[in-house]
Write the structure tokens for this entry.
Amino acid sequence: MALTFAKIDQTVLDTLRPAPKSYWLMVLLVFAGLLAGAACWAYQILTGLGVAGMNNPVHWGTYLINFVFWVGIAHSGTLISAILHLFRAGWRNPIARAAETMTVFAVCTAGLFPFIHLGRVWMVYYMLPFPNQRTLWPNFQSPLMFDVVAISTYLTVSSLFWYTGMLPDLAIIRDRAEGVRKKIFTVLSLGWTGEHEQWRHYVRIYLFFAALATPLVISVHSVVSWDFALGVVPGWHTTIFAPYFVAGAIHSGLAMVLTLMIPLRKIFHYEEIITIRVLEQVAKTIIFTGLIVAYAYGTEFFIAWYSHNDVEIEVFLWRAYGHYAVGFWIMVGCNTVAPLLFFFKKIRTSIKWLFVISIVVNIGMWFERFVIIITSVGRDFLPHAWGVYAPTLVEFGIMIGSFCLFFFLYLLFVKHLPSVSMTEMKETLEKGGSHGG
Amino acid sequence: MADDRYLMGLFIEENGAVDAVGALGESSFRIEKVFSPVPSHRLADALKVKKSWVGLFTLFGGVFGFFAGFLLAIFTASRWDLIVSGKPVISLIPFLIVGFEFTILFAVFGNIIGFLFLTDLPRSDWRRHYDERLSGRYYGVLAACPAGREQELEALLERQGADVRRMDRDDPPERAAARPEQAHP
Amino acid sequence: MTEDHAIDRAGKSRGARTAVTVFLVLTAGGLAAFIAGVLGPHPERAWQAYLINFLLWTGLASGGVLFSAIMQATGARWSGRMAGIAEAFSAFFPVSFILFLILFLGQSYLFPWLHEDLHGKEAWLNVPFLFTRDAAALLVLYGVGFRYLYNSLQLRFGGASAGGRRFREGLQRRWAGRRIDEAAVRRRATFWGLLYCFCFVLVMSLIGYDLVMAADPHWISTLFGAYSFVKAIYLGLGGLIITASVLYLKNGPDSGLTKDHFHDVGKLFFAFCLVWGDFFYAQLVVIWYGNISEETAYVIERTMLAPWNRAAWAVLLICFVAPFLILINKKIKTVPPAMIVLCAVVVLGMYLEHMLLLAPAISRSPANIPIGILDLFVFLGFFGLMAASLMTFMTQFPEVARLRKREAN
């Protein structure tokens, strides 16, 4: 059955019907996990950062790993909604809304981790530039301050982009809702009526949003990578980090897109909108980003040898054969080898394989951050200062809590806001010809 | 003008709306507004509107942000001018990052402000001369005519294939009953 | 204009023959200047000019062909005519390979590491291994490129008549003999196009590490390989825009090029201006911030000390600031003469950039920036070679430059 404007509206509006009990059960479950994580965090605030595993020499652990992980996931949402809009790639339209939402919630989740890592959370005011009687100002030369600026900019811009993109859809819901819902969506849709005058400006600003979000994406994860690269730690101080991290971020984010889209399209009957072809395009892009990541791994090892720098060589050998070798080989296998399976059409058009490989890639990317952060700091210049690190239960609790937070927000979103952009889907149809009745 | 009557022609096909715009342009009736569920190039061409200059807001925001970012970083560094890690107190290489991020941030603010300003959103009077089918799949042409010529205008619109609705001040009760597909509460 | 259609038996029109003559004269002039330089008091200056031009024009040619490969691999449909022009750069591949082999003769000037204690790096930096691997790499790249073109050109010109052009006739006989359907050719073109992209990344990185970064053998930058191929793509797009603009100015709408083509390629050029700037900054900020003397010496000499700092600022302005500010404007991308000037200036800026990276190592602390008449002649010589190569390709495949009567994108 061909898609029409009416069918698109109906399919998406149907997802906003009152939810079955199973949905609320899942929300409750995820919320429980979120509370458990919050409890761990509260315990940490009351007891001290020592309850986490960070110590000498490894002073950055899962809090940084998760921070980078979630920021990375956020990036491919912007890639899909902004960069692919600039390239006029039509396959982005069915998944753009869900991907942008993933971005916003992932940045929210990521943004918690610098706070968590502070220990004494209230001290964050040191990082804000406001006049105070101690005449203290933050030092903007610090990469951590770059992070503050970059992540807050990214959160603000992504949220505004996400909201602006939703405006026409919010009007659609407003016009078909009743009662309290109608009032809420009336406020949310700002009085949008789809007049030509509004569209005229809307199309321009959407293009500008896409054009601005693209360099933003690249700069934000470059800034995050510079948290590591601007130091002198071996294995961190390397010029390739910026594009390497950006490619890795998009890699993990695309995998998360698949992880989210596949159950979503099944449960919400989006099969005709989020077609196999769309998922296949995501899979092909994952091959591309996986190859970039492989190039980066190879280059780092080659240059480590080429540099004939004993410290550098030691770190890289330890990564492959040392205490954390398992993590290293998981990283290499999951990130660079597994996506190659997508070269086979049978695999990249099979829902089961797409889902499995997407999870594998996400695990691999988590381990990449683990390997990069832990092994470099654990094995730097002075042998007597070498050490290892293991996350504690509190850290695991907080990590599980962060995953639960993300899925909690996402679950709430899919049932109360349109998870597919009806307007953009209609535009796709319009470009392809008539839209039927 | 205060005596004008407004009629909305609703079209399922974009072509009908485009033709209606053309026909109205040649008549003595005034086109008040044109609606569409998706942005339409053909309607834009038919209406011959100039390009939106919302980009100027974006540009000013970006330029402002560029200098604001650098100035903030330079100001804070000069207030607390200890030499850290052997780097100059005021150094453009790291400050470029702050300047860049602020450029994007304020360009986006300019974008939003320009958009809200030029489209006059948020609006509370959106219900006036609006039909809820327009957000779904109908294109709409709202035309105005002096009192007494409604029949003529209605005929013109119907000739283009419109489903015509009179947007009088008092919305007749039978219209209120003909609502499109509901979203469930 | 119709007089130019008078094609002689070799397939060239009168105007084309004049052009080729001019280009060959330029090449001869470049060769003469180069030989004079090598035999003169500063042979390293001549070899430096040679190497810079080799890298510049090889990058431009490979990057140009990459455009076609990417468009094929991604299934893009807007770019047909542009991709056809991009494929013309492949004619430079054999020239580039021979030019590479000639580098062997200048090894004592071009490889400063020959005279240094490499503390173990000799396993990688030794003349036999370096030349073998780089020659093999270029052979692979160009081989894959030609294999890609074999399929892509068949898609483009498979059924058309060869019009008496010998090379093309040979090709078309082979295509006819293949007897495979269009879908299969398309699949092969996509496969080889993807492989070309893959090889391009690896080979351009290798060339960058071996011929540029190794000039200062104690300095490293992991991003340098990627930086090298990004430069090549930036240059390739610039070369493509110049060629397309020239063809448009010569043939008008008959070239098959529209405003949209120029707009889109102009946007790509703008994008790669940003990517180049980003990759440049990514190296700069990491090295500056870490402040490790093994790394900073290289950067300090080139960006902060005389005489190179002036060149560094010039490169930044010409290759980043100017294109960025100019190309933000949408309209200028569709004005071919303006784009010719802009892209040509960027190519010159990139020449300066290559010089900035190589000259401090090869020319060793001169009082002034070592650029002069010799460099101009050698540059024009290489330009002549490139232009002659392009003309040769377009002689065999004139539809690239000018549509046949019934063709469209």
